Amino acid sequence: MADPKGFLNHEREVATARPVGERVQDWKEVYRPGALLPIISEQASRCMDCGIPFCHNGCPLGNLIPEWNDYAWRDDWSAASERLHATNNFPEFTGRLCPAPCEAACVLGINQQPVTIKNVEVTVVDKAWDSGDVTPQPPERLSGKTVAVIGSGPAGLAAAQQLTRAGHTVAVYERADRIGGLLRYGIPEFKMEKRHINRRIEQMRAEGTKFRTETEIGRDIDAKKLRKRYDAVVIAAGATTSRDLPVPGRELNGIHFAMEYLPLANKVQEGDLTVAPITAAGKHVVVIGGGDTGADCVGTAHRQGAASVTQLEIMPRPGEERSAGQPWPTFPMLYKVTSAHEEGGERVYSVSTTRFEGDEDGNVQWLHLIEVEFKDGKLAQKPGTERRIPAQLVTLAMGFTGTDRENGLVEQFGLELDARGNIARDAEFATNVPGVFVAGDAGRGQSLIVWAIAEGRSAARGVDRFLTGASALPAPIKPTDRALAV
């Protein structure tokens, strides 16, 4: 194990972010490269190498956390990288974007602050890239089997890499102009610079994976024809149907889904646009939705020069400590201050939007809201609490309701859906259509990046068994597995 007294001698410490006044002037990541390195070995020493490491259960990938913590403490970064990549195809993604359910399950977290698992993870993989430890791993021989992967988000990329390394010829189809799915256009640059995606894509190309951009299955290629062309298909198209807010005034100009707003800001950073067609510059911005996507909208609005930013959440403000109803090692719903919230703006809880008000030209100018409270287990409006706030740009970040049904993919394949509107699958991640599998949010529903990678890895095993009759690929989760929660 790492230092037996590490958790006694050292308190939790994370890297200091760049000053707010500096970082809102650019789109670079909040933390300077290498900022964690001076403290990370000491932080890794806090890992107790528990007899039952609950962090394994908190993480759907089953990451070997005590092992790479020990190697990081000993400055054996190559061994740490090998252990990290044994269970995770893209630790630089999860190390930056995952909310770290592993830390919520850390045994040290019972009565202290947990180990900085996420920080150790991203330090290990960044050093691995810098030292050349991350290299292509092409298969020794080809199977002669072909697989199409629909969607290039974390689930699709994980499935594609696993199947390519197993010897199958894999082509990834992406409807956008670049590979990455929501990692590319949904995650702002200041949370993860896209160079991290680009170098993984180059690694996968060197291993043999093919990529087809600007090709939407269901519109550009009929799904049935695709199925005939390949021996197997993996659908990893995500859950991209945004939840709407059908209140009076919704039709006004200036009200957009988060996934209409965020991709345009990313396209500016890619050099495709000079100015985003939807911008917060000089406007009073209201973000409806208190989750991570809402926080991404907040940080983007700050960098675009918003006059003010207000984030609304219908639920009450979470507590800062675990409640009795969310005991260790479950993932608690706690009040979280992201880097975007550190940069300014107001957060308003327990409110519901009643209507939008516009000017004579049809542009939104005001948002009307009312306070809400729980009564008899249901949300109820509080009479006399109505008010309006200025809103010249509104982003709807209230989550997603399922996979895209408009492009014809579901109907053309003849796929069955479950009760929640997701694509149904069996224990092998197979759909009702022989040879067609589903991974990620398209089958699970809206979830975390770490679950998407786990789904991609697990679905790859199902595909490999379908194609060859057996598989040595790992399957960290079952389709029915859920997060450790109450």
Automatic annotation (TrEMBL):
Pathway given in the UniProt record: Amino-acid biosynthesis
Record-linked InterPro entries: 4Fe4S_Fe-S-bd, DPD_II, FAD/NAD-bd_sf, FAD/NAD-binding_dom, Glut_synth_ssu1, Glutamate_Synthase, Helical_ferredxn
Domain 4Fe-4S ferredoxin-type: 36-69
UniProtKB keywords: Amino-acid biosynthesis, Glutamate biosynthesis, Oxidoreductase
TM segment ranges: none
Listed Pfam families: Fer4_20, Pyr_redox_2
Signal peptide: none
Name recorded for this polypeptide: Glutamate synthase subunit beta
Organism: Streptomyces ramulosus
Lineage: Bacteria, Bacillati, Actinomycetota, Actinomycetes, Kitasatosporales
